[in-house]
Design goal:
Blueprint (H helix, E strand, L loop, with lengths): L14 E4 L4 E5 L13 H4 L4 E5 L16 H14 L5 E6 L1 H13 L3 E7 L8 H17 L1 H8 L13 H12 L3 H12 L5 H6 L4 E6 L7 H5 L8 E6 L6 H4 L1 H18 L1
Parallel strand pairs: 2-3, 2-4, 4-5, 5-6, 6-7
Antiparallel strand pairs: 1-3
Helix pairs in contact: 2-3, 4-5, 4-7
């Protein structure tokens, strides 16, 4: 749903809402939209109130025209949920969406019943990764978004299954190419400059879900695995022969993992 914006009001993000029950908020990653969850919504909405969100600048939102932080993105999600009268929810974020979910948890922990990091991390970027993102900005400035996305998306999928998953790769690639250049640039800066949020995991009084790909080229498995023991209550799923796009690479398995996590949250709420 696209919400008309009134002057002076906080941004209300584009979203879709399906089903009834415990609110489950799904946040997409970089160069994605809420449609990344298209195969999850029909199943999850049978038992839950599923809210998929286009983060600022992405999907059906207007392009970004100014700098923003991951924390700013979390504030936007907060204002949307307030508009929808969602007092508490489970929030699951893919990649950059996980960064936003962690920032949300840092500011609004009382509004969460559970948090899912779907191929994501609480760590800030390493120096090497920050430098890589700066080089990416130079590349986009020189060659444009479409050329960047062509190079960016395919390596997110496990090499051994790329031929099998060619339709899914095309779907994600086409989605990425539709992202406005200004949004891509500001999102890269926001990810590059985000702070470490491992303390959010330490302080969490709600369960944490980790879904990780052992062959993820975007989120280093060894680096990420150090986080598994930080939360008091964590569920960890490690996917072999899987890269960064588990919702497509291992659709049935990851959907089952999310469903079981939601069931556990309800039982222990």
């Amino acid at each position: 749903m696209d919400i008309p914006q009134q002057e002076g009001e906080p941004l209300l993000l584009s979203y879709k809402e399906t089903g009834k029950g415990l609110p489950v908020v799904l946040l997409h990653g970089f160069c994605e939209t809420k449609e990344i969850w298209k195969n999850f919504v029909p199943v999850l909405s049978k038992n839950y109130r599923v809210i998929t969100v286009d983060l600022a600048g992405f999907g059906k939102n207007p392009p970004l025209t100014h700098a923003l932080t991951i924390g700013d993105m979390a504030e936007d999600v907060y204002h949307l949920l307030k508009h929808l009268n969602v007092e508490q929810c489970v929030m699951i974020g893919h990649s950059m969406g996980g960064y936003v979910a962690l920032a949300f948890a840092e500011k609004f922990s009382q509004r969460l019943k559970g948090l899912g990091l779907f191929h994501s991390t609480a760590h800030a970027d390493s120096l090497e990764k920050r430098q890589g993102r700066t080089k990416t900005l130079d590349y986009i400035d020189r060659y444009g978004v479409a050329e960047f996305v062509e190079e960016f998306v395919t390596p997110l999928f496990f090499e051994g299954r790329r031929k099998e998953l060619k339709d899914e790769i095309k779907f994600v690639t086409d989605m990425g190419k539709a992202t406005p250049k200004s949004t891509v640039v500001e999102a890269i800066k926001a990810m590059r400059d985000r702070k470490d949020r491992t303390k959010v995991l330490e302080k969490a009084n709600f369960p944490i879900l980790f879904i990780v790909g052992r062959n993820d080229s975007a989120i280093n498995f060894v680096h990420t695995s150090a986080q598994f023991i930080i939360p008091e209550n964590a569920t960890v799923h490690i996917l072999n022969n899987t890269g960064h796009m588990g919702m497509f690479e291992r659709e049935k398995e990851t959907l089952r993992m999310v469903k079981h996590f939601l069931e556990d949250v309800e039982v222990h709420a």
